[in-house]
Amino acid sequence: MKTQIASLAANPEKEMETLYSQFDRPGAFFHNPASFKVPNPGPPLTESTRIGLVHGDVAKYKLKIGVGPEEYDFIILTSYVIEKSPWSTDRSKNLIILPGQALTESFYSDMAIYYAQQGYCTYILDRRETNVPANETDFSYMENWTIDRYLSDTYDGIAISRIHTALLSEEAVEDIEVTVIGHSHGALILTAYKASEYHDLALGSVNRIIPVDIIIKYEPKYSELIRAQAQEFDSISRCMENRTYNGSNMAAMMQIASLALTYPDRESLFQPGLTNRQFFRLMATRTHAFNPYPYTPNYHYWSGDLGGLYYVDEDRLLNLTLTGGAVPYVPKHLDLYMAGLMGNVDGYEIDFSRISTPVLYIGLGGGFSDYGSWWYEKEVGKINDKVTSISWNNQGHGSIAIDYNAPELWALIHSWIKDN
């Protein structure tokens, strides 16, 4: 395989598709494909583009991967890597970032560039919902966007990242090591993926995982929070029974952000007595107060008060939210899955016995905090002595991405990766 990659012609975009076609039965080079229990999830790569240098010698690539026949059935990998020359690098370790709910690559680009500078081929995987435009009105297709569909998409993203790095580095595909950081819903998908049979496929294996700010199961003593999530599960189930398959919380937040950016000093239509900017700050810093079933008593997106946000540039946050950093509509299946796990609903479990590689759980102090560490430490930790957890600062659920001091957390993660 190394020889094949080294001899690719001077049209890398076309050669990516040619190379991928050799892997249209994942595992064929390593195992008997008939032994796998999951369906063949190997779609063609539909587009590969080098964007160019974006930060010093860090270059950016876009990889569009078809994952089904419908209009929005594709995912996007955005890659950041230090190049020797266009389409060439001497880096061969992959780090993949799975974004939080309704967030896109734009929110994590600083983080990806940081890891590229530390020697990784860094990839951000944008899920299907990032393709859905704000003016969409028909969400019937989201009925089929189940957690298993997202696990299959994750496999495709991991497999293509390996192939792309092999193309750039001339390393053997099977020699490329993969670390995955998942944030929020990205951490939920990552944890479920690690425990799934998709992870057993040759190109889908992951060497270490870093779930950031998620709760898989509450410690049993938090019975009120568990009951609340069981109620949330019932509420989402009723919506889906009534054929409402999309959540639009971010659409509402984007409207509030637009008013806060465009007319910051006008009185809020939603909260008389506050300006548009102050109402945005209230929503951002006291998020739990607007949720009938808050995850934790102090859950919030960003830290601050009505006078301003503490750790992040507000204008940058608002602009990112409105210019592609956030998407308005997400599938309810993911929220249903999350509520089913946290609410101890029958049939909703993740098999922790399958998670045997190193795990670093990170709780963000103002988000899921230490509530999320219990399952990783006490359940996964029963059979895995390579589980570590840390609680990082009393900042909001979004603080890993663009807060001023986020590089401190990125450095902690990098140090852990080197040690594990």
Describe the model.
By secondary structure, the protein is an alpha/beta fold. It has a single domain (2-219, 336-419), classed as Rossmann fold (3-Layer(aba) Sandwich). The chain has 13 helices and 13 strands. The chain has helices spanning 2-6, 12-21, 105-117, 147-169, 185-194, 223-241, 249-262, 276-285, 314-325, 332-342, 373-379, 399-402, 406-419, and strands at residues 45-55, 58-66, 74-82, 93-98, 121-126, 177-183, 208-212, 246-247, 304-305, 308-309, 330-331, 359-364, 387-392. It has a nine-stranded mixed β-sheet, sandwiched between helices. A two-stranded antiparallel ribbon has the order 8-11. Strand 6, helix 5 and strand 7 (208-212) form a beta-alpha-beta unit. Helix 4 (147-169) packs across helix 5 (185-194). The longest helix is centred in the middle third of the chain and has 23 residues, at 147-169. It starts with a helix and ends with a helix.
